[in-house]
Amino acid sequence: MTIRFDNSYARELEGMYIPWHGAQAPAPKLLLLNTALAQELGLDPDALAGPAGLAMLSASAMPEGAEPLAMAYAGHQFGGFSAQLGDGRAILVGEVIDRQGQRRDIHLKGSGKTPFSRGGDGKAALGPVLREYILGEAMQALGIPTTRALAAVATGESVLREGPLPGAVLARVASSHLRVGTFQFFLARGETARLRRLTDYAIHRHFPELEGQGDRDLAFLRAVIARQMALVAQWMAVGFVHGVMNTDNCAISGETIDYGPCAFLDAYDPRAVFSSIDRQGRYAYDRQPVLAQWNLARLAEAMLPLINPENPEAALPMVQEVIEEAPEIYALEWRARMGAKLGLTQCSAADEGLITGFLSHLAAQEADFTRSFAALADAAQGKEAALRDCLKDAAGLSEWLVAWRERLEAEDGGAGAAAGRMAAVNPVYIPRNHLVEAALSAAHSGDLAPTRQLLEVLSQPFTRRPGLEAFEQSAPAGFGPYTTFCGT
Ligand code: AMP
Ligand code: MG
What we know:
By secondary structure, this protein is α+β, with helices and mostly antiparallel strands. It contains 18 helices and twelve strands. Strands 2, 6, 7, 8, 9 and 10 form a six-stranded antiparallel beta sheet that branches. A two-stranded antiparallel sheet has the order 1-3. It has a two-stranded antiparallel sheet with strand order 4-5. Helix 6 (180-188) packs across helix 9 (288-307), helix 13 (369-380) packs antiparallel against helix 16 (414-425) and helix 17 packs antiparallel against helix 18.
């Protein structure tokens, strides 16, 4: 198996990682391989499925050209700072340039202990690995920036969690694994020279258009904020709750990273929290924009000694000004995304009431978020049955519907054209919690067919297909309130 690696992180950021190898998996078995992604990366899917490929994907043995390493990073977890986190159960295998010319990391999660493991075993269990695979691929199909799954491999060993669980490794692809926490690591240690190198590296890798600018650090911060605000607006528009928005899980690239206790809303509830460890609701659905901004303020702090090495504090007003732009950037992104869900091409501040009006109805009626928006596309064409089905009190929405239809008349092509646009942005299929749980439960019994089918359904989220009615439905009544676990 030949992979053309080009390992810029290993080459350019010495001192910011520890060269490291994965643990030998006793009996690796390929569970899922993302053939399309492999091809996008210029990798041969057959070779990946062969012995050398499996050795790499299970972290057991690296191909030529790989320079596996564990990255150092810090992070605020639930608001408390840990000066040293780092890849405690993961390694970066190396980087490849994909068919589009984009640099992509190949990374393994569940690859064994590293010097950053602290008390952990460095391993991952099958359930969380498949969950990340499913959720990440769903996000990709929804058009939301995300890390992706290249493969899931069973290791053939048990990992001990609440009991023994089958172990697995997730091969993950990202446009990089630079996190807000990576910058915090060097800020906390006062290693300004490394912080400088890291920032220049990040700019070169993700925002090359900023290179050579005099105020590139501020511009970098502004660019990361723009991507993160756009990302969170996209999460909100599909009802996604990340669940653990710690600064180490906040990617500089603007991709969704580290799917742990995340979940999609069933009934619309702005206060929704799924994660068992988020007892205060810090990362509740409606807190995500504010928390993203909080995370970016931590990145902003790391820019201070770069902007003004002699007197970092003096740079504070400049940096603050940039951070304070975040809410407005978010508001615009959110309005555009939510407006599009209502069929609006140009959504102004005056339209915000229409958006919040619909959401209030959904909240009050505990209506399914995804189904209600999908049904609204039909309602634009006068077919209201599906929408009525979502609501406890359909009559309560009639005034809103009148105002909405009136507003659609101001759009080119009126309500008819809006219906088509709406169908393209309001998904029919999302990774519903009960479907994900059912797939994982079958996988634990050795049956991957439901996982494969779910992945297939989620790969075309906007196209309703006959025979897939069950995948549109809300959780059955007996499913109860949903709780997610980190599963680490
Ligand atoms: P997470 O909350 O999954 O983003 O992980 C936070 C930190 O804990 C990271 O430094 C991880 O590498 C580390 N970690 C999580 N699970 C394990 C594990 N099983 N063994 C070692 N380190 C872990
Ligand atoms: Mg993480």
